[in-house]
Amino acid sequence: MTDNPTGNPERFEPVFCTIVPPFVLDTLAQSQDPALAGPARRTLQRDAFERTQRRLTTVIGAPSVAAPKGAEEGKPHRTLYDAKHRTELPGRKVRGEGDKPGKDATVNRAYDGLGATFEVFFKHFERDSIDGGGLPLNATVHYGEDYGNAFWNGEQMVFGDGDREIFLDFTIPVDVIGHELTHGVVQYTANLTYFGQPGALNESMADVFGSLIKQYTLGQTAAEADWLIGAGLLAERVTGTALRSMKAPGTAYDDDVLGKDPQPATMDGFVRTGRDNGGVHINSGIPNHAFYLLAQALGGHAWERAGQIWYAVLTGGELAQDASFADFAKLTVAAARAKYGDGEELKAVLDAWAQVKVPAT
């Protein structure tokens, strides 16, 4: 049983979610260096194809995926596939649930990352897999030729190996895995429209829980975490640390090829654009920063209180598919009050939204 508030759990938005924003790939595709432009163009072409495939599933229906017979509640059911640098999904099965690690480090990282994501949602949010009903976690690695992205296509995870010039293997940062799988959680719950402010909230939710999964695997408190999304993904030649920073949006990279990280930290810098589905990967910096500020104010492990508030809103049934930042902020205030009363949690939520200049009352 899903907790999708739309009333029809089989009807989802045709969302195709990637970790690398299209505007980054657009910039690389225009490079005079064929080692950069070629992989970026191929990646954009594949993304366009997969995006179309995702739309088609809403018309003809996606194949039903259910927990396998005999699957134990509260335990993940992972299957890893190897595309062998081709693009047919899912590819050849290379590791199943409970199988010992093999020689392929990419397969092992993906398997562990799927497990960590499952564990965080089950242990700390009482959610049995992505759909809340034990959905199998399937993932394909070594997708495409120098494919520079990772994505959730509504049914499974897919990881590219990167071009090794700008991007390394997309299974390296565990938060990339957590980010993409969280898009699945959003799909099965609030189902936020992937455009404008609700689309930016969709991306922010993925960053928030991706970061929590990273912090959980590292045993970090909010104060100890780096709050970077995709740290370890950028190759040595890139002047930057990650794809995004929740702590300081707009500072993740400043590179002669990629340009400067365009994320704003507050509504003063809100970007109005028709690109990137209305700036979903850009303006997500604002709710990202609000969550960071809340987690810092509360201290301890960010999944213990800050994460609980965000999760309550995501799954509570009151978050509309077309919610604005202000709509979401007001619901976090209500959730904080409902869970913790009028104490420090409520004050911290109000202060966080005030600092990013989103009205919360």
Task: Characterise the protein shown here.
The structure is a single chain. Helices cover 42% and strands 9% of the residues. With 361 residues, the protein is an alpha+beta fold. The strands form three sheets. The protein has a six-stranded mixed β-sheet with strand order 1-5-6-4-2-3, covered by helices on one side. It contains ten helices and ten strands. The longest helix is centred in the N-terminal third of the chain and has 27 residues. Helix 3 packs across helix 4. About 4% of the residues have low confidence.
How would you concisely characterize the structure shown here?
This protein is of the alpha+beta class and 361 residues long.
Topology of this structure?
Layout lengths: L16 E2 L3 H8 L4 H27 L17 E5 L9 E5 L8 H21 L11 E5 L8 E3 L4 E3 L14 H15 L7 H23 L9 E2 L14 E2 L8 E2 L3 E2 L15 H4 L5 H14 L7 H10 L9 H16 L3 H12 L6
Parallel strand pairs: 2-4, 4-6
Antiparallel strand pairs: 1-5, 2-3, 5-6, 7-8, 9-10
Helix pairs in contact: 1-2, 3-4, 4-5, 5-7, 7-10, 8-9, 9-10
Q: Kindly provide the radius of gyration, computed on alpha-carbon positions and rounded to a whole number of angstroms.
A: 19 Å
Say how many strands there are: 10
Largest pleated sheet: 6 strands, mixed
**DSSP strand content:** 5-15%
Average pLDDT number: 92
What string gives the helices and strands in order?
Answer: EHHEEHEEEHHEEEEHHHHH
Strand order of the largest sheet: 1-5-6-4-2-3
Coarse structural class:
alpha+beta
Instruction: Give the overall shape, derived from the CA principal axes.
Output: globular
With helices defined by DSSP (H or I, 4 residues minimum), what is the helix count?
Answer: 10
